Amino acid sequence: MPPKARPPIATTEIRFRSLFDDTPELILYQNEKATILDANRAFLALVAEPKDRVVDRPYDDFLPPEVQPLFQEKLQEAFAGKTVRFDMYAAQGNSAPRHWDVVKVPLLENGVVIGVHMIARDITDKMQAQQEIVTQNQDLQQFTYIVSHNLRAPLASALGLADLLGTEEPGSPYFEETRTHLQASLHQLDRVLRDMNTILSIRDQKSVAEAEAVPLADVVQQVVQNLQEVVDQCGGTVRVAIPADLSLRANRAYLYSIFFNLLSNALQYRADERPLVVTVTATGGAGQPTRLTVADNGSGFDQEQAGDDVFKLYKRFHPHRPGRGLGLYLIKTHVESLGGHIAVYSRVDEGARFTIVVP
Amino acid sequence: MDTLIIDDNPTGIFLTTRLLRREGQPADVITAFVSPVEAVAFFRQQVLTGPLPQLVLLDLNMPLLSGWDVLDALKPLEAHLLDRCVFYVLTSSLAPADAARARQYPLVAGVLHKPLDGAKIQAMHARLQQTRPT
User: Which of A3, A248, B13, B59 is the most exposed place for a label (fewest CB within 10 A)?
Assistant: First the structure.
C-alpha cells in the first residue's frame, strides 16, 4: 500500500491559523526581547487595540509594572527550551484585572528556540468559585464549633444537676431547685437543636427561595400590627416611612422575619429612661438598590467592643437581659439569602440603626 | 476558702455552688458574678485594699467579655493577684486548644471541663493547699 499523502501545506496552514486566531484563550508569539510578533483575536479584543497597534510592541506595554519581572523571567526560561506554566492576577492593557493561567511554549527550529508562544486562559470564575468554597468551609467549621459548644453547655449542666439530684434530699427545697434547673437545661438543649433546624432550613432554601414582588409597606405594617400590644405597653412609637408602591423581589416570610426580629430587638433593648421610638424607612426601586433602615433610640451597645461579632450565632451583648444571640444571626442569614447585606451603627445609650441594602 | 464564680449562666452558678458545698466546706464563702464586666471591676477595686477570693472559677463563653478577655483585662493586676488568687477555667467547651491557651496565663492553674464533680473539687483544693501552706 502506498504511504498516505501528506495534506497540502495550505490546509495545514489554515488549520493552525484557525487554532491560533479563533481560540478563546489569549495567544501571543514573542521573540527573546519580549516583543509581540503575533497576537490572536482574543488578545486584541481584550486590550481593545487593532493588530497593527499590538504587533512589534513590547508585551510590557500591556502589563502592569508589578508583573513585568515575572513575565521576563518566565520568558527567559521558555527561551532556555522549557515549557513553563504559572498563575497570575493582572490587568492586560486597559482590561479589568483577571486571574490568568499562563503557559509559555518554546518554538524550536534545529534545536534552537526561535520564539515563544504564550497562551493565557482566564480562570477568574474558577478562582472565585474556589474562594467561595474556602469561605463556605470556614463558615461551616465555625458553625460546627459554635453548635458543639452550645450543645455541650446545657448538656454539661444537665449532667452535673443529675449527679447533684442523687445526693439532695428528695422533697427538700434544694432538690426541687435542682430539678427546676435540670428541666431548664434540658429545655435549653432542646432549643439549641430547634435553632439548628431553623437555621438549616433557611440555608436549604437559599437557592429555591420563593421570590415574589412583596410590597414592603404591607409586610412592615403586618409586623407592627403583631407587635402593637407590646409597643403600646411600653409607651413606644413606631414610625414607618415606606412608599406604598415600593416592593422587593423576595420571599415574604423572610422579609417578615427580618422586620419582626429587628423590631423585637428594638423593643427588648429599649432604654428605660425614655419612651421608645423606632423609625422604619425604605427607599429604592426603579433600578436602584433597595435600602431598608430600622433605627431606635434604645440602649444600644458598645460597637467597638462587639467588633465583628454582632451578627454571629449565639453572641450576646446585653448580659442582664434575656436573649439567645440568635435573632441577628437569623436576620443576616435571611438578608444574605436575598443577595443583600446588613450593617449596624450603634452607640451605648443612644440607640442602634440597622441598614439593609438589597441590590 | 473564699471562692468566686464568674459565669453568665445562673444554672451554672447554682450547680457549681451546690457541688462545692456538697464537698463539705460549709465555712466557704461563695460569691458569684453573672457579668464578666462586673467581675473585672470587682478585681480592680479589691486588688489594693479589699479582701480577695482565694479560688476563682472562670467560665469562658460569656457575653461582652469572654473568660480570656477577663484574664487579659486582669493582666495589669497580675503581680498583685498571683500569690493571692488561684484561677481555674471552668468551661463546657472540650476544645483542646483551651488548655494550651490557659498556660499562657500565670494566674490560671488549670482548665476544668463542666460539670464539676467531687474528684475535680478535691484536686483543686489539694492544689491550693500545696501552693499556700497555712
Answer: A3
CB contact under 8 A, B117 and A160: yes
Which of A149, A316, A317 to substitute to test the interface with B, most B CBs within 10 Å?
Answer: A149
Q: Which of B8, B37, B116 is closest, CB to CB, to A160?
A: B116
Count of A–B CB contacts within 8 Å? 71
> Residue A222 burial (CB < 10 Å; 0-12/13-18/19+)?
middle
B27 pLDDT more than 60:
no
Q: At what angle do helices A252-268 and A216-233 cross, to 10 degrees?
A: 30
Check CB contact of B28 with chain A, cutoff 8 Å.
no
Min Cα–Cα distance to chain B from A211, Å: 36
Helix extents (H) in chain A: 9-22, 41-47, 68-79, 124-165, 173-205, 216-233, 252-268, 303-306, 327-337
Q: Which CATH architecture has domain A209-359?
A: 2-Layer Sandwich (3.30)
Residue B33: pLDDT over 90: yes
So what's the pLDDT on residue B134?
43
The answer to whether the Cβ–Cβ distance between B11 and A184 falls below 8 Å is yes
Q: Which CATH class is domain A124-208?
A: mainly alpha
Architecture of domain A9-122: 2-Layer Sandwich (3.30)
Whether chain A has a CB inside 8 Å of the CB on B63: the answer is yes
- Per residue in A215-250, pLDDT (tens digit) is 999 889 989 988 898 889 889 999 999 998 898 888
A184 to chain B, any CB pair closer than 8 A? The answer is: yes
Residues of B in contact with A316 (CB under 8 A): 63-64
B44 lies in which domain range? 3-131
Q: Closest approach of chain A CAs to the CA of B85, in angstroms?
A: 25
B57-113 pLDDT per residue, tens? 999 988 778 999 999 999 999 999 998 899 999 999 888 889 999 999 999 999 999
CA distance A194 to A182: 18
For residue B19, pLDDT over 60 is answered with yes
How many residues comprise chain B? 134
In which residue ranges of chain A is pLDDT below 50? Answer: 207-208
**CA atoms of B123 and B117, how far apart (whole Å):** 10
Task: Tell whether B116 lies on the interface with A, counting CB pairs under 8 A.
Answer: yes
Which tens digits make up the pLDDT trace of A45-57? 999 999 999 999 9
Contacts of B52 (CB under 8 A, 6+ apart): B2, B43, B46, B81, B84, B85
